[in-house]
Amino acid sequence: MMKKSTRTGLFFGSFNPIHLGHLMIASYMVEFTDIREVWFVISPHNPLKEKATLLSDLNRLYMVNVAVEDEPRFKASNIEFHLPEPSYTIDTLTYLQERYPTHEFILLAGTDILPTFHKWKNYEQLLDQYQLYIYPRLYNGSVPFSLHPSLTFVDAPLIEISSSFIRNGIREGKNMKYFLPAKVWEYVEEMGFYR
User: Fold this and answer.
1) Do 136 and 110 meet the contact criterion of CB atoms below 8 Å apart?
2) Can you list the domains of the chain with their CATH numbers?
3) pLDDT digits 0-9 by tens, 9-42
């Protein structure tokens, strides 16, 4: 069997827009865990989300690219743009594992996914075949799966900056410059996004 060489964290999201909180979590993963790189997997438009609030796939991909361009351990991935929709995490992981057999993929997610994780497609297969590194999010309920051996809870700082908070601030005319990477903020301003 081919030896797996690179532990790669997969950070899924709409990144609408990518912000400093996303980058802080990714940075924590490569600095304080055994993950060597983080791929930001940009989700295509979700039919359950309002189209009006979501920028085009290519605009969001561009923002992630400029946000990570100076960090060689970070990569923007548009892999889900080319897979059947709706995209399911297990299908994306299966595709990536076939395409990159020397990578060991680890799913990065917040504690807030756990209450509904049992509703994910083939969640048992996910737990059997992959590790999940769980970072803290503000969440008050019980934490199902907390004893499962495939889950590793990381002691990352609690970062509660959200893309919706940033979009709402921009819509209200607030200066959200310091919540975004500089090049992302410049692009958002230049394009007049979220106004």
Assistant:
1) yes
2) 6-191 (3.40.50.620)
3) 999 999 999 999 999 999 999 999 999 999 999 9
